[in-house]
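Input sequence (228 aa), recorded before submission:
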Amino acid sequence: MTRTERVLARRWRGLLLVCTLVALAGAVLILWAQVDHDRERAQQREVQARAEADRRGDAVSTLATDVRRLRTQLRGEGKTPVAPDPADAVKDLPDRAEVPVPIPGPRGPAGSPGEAGRDGASGKPGSAGPSGKAGTDGADGAAGQQGVQGEPGPAGPQGPAGPPGADGQDGRDGADGKDGQTCPDGYSLQPPPNDPDALVCRRNGAPAPEPDPSPSTPAALAPDRRRL
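Predicted structure, token format:
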């Protein structure tokens, strides 16, 4: 590293500050020159606008004077002029024909706000408008959720008796009942010869039994005996 490089390495902050100041000064000078140039151009445009306005004012004043002279000449000849008076045809003609034309200056500062105005009188109600067309029925909405069942209400009073109902149809005949005897078919209850107070089932048409010679067997123990 050379001596010059060492010096620059030690003083680089100062050099950077100097370069920054020079750059800022150059930018300020450029902006100042641009603003000055714009101001001069605005002044030139203002001068040109004033000159153009004065020329137009002179033209309007000349035309108005010529029209008045023509109207006076026609009236002197007993004719009716077709063109109206310039003052009647053009509103504020004297102000428009004034030379030099007054150029409005820069806008002044805003004034203080004025007091709030009073409420105006209520207007008359307007006439009723025509009736609108009847709207179409909308689509049915979705069914809602079933609500909780409420408590049962009190029983109402008993209603009047209804008319008598029609007679029902006759039922089918039942099956024939069995005979009151408990003996099977072909048998009937008959008193045994040894016990007239009892009844036993004997075959119909059977011969009468012979009396039992052995009195040792009681009639109550006979195997073919049945008590009622």
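Checked by second reader. Confidence is low (pLDDT under 50) at residues 216-223.
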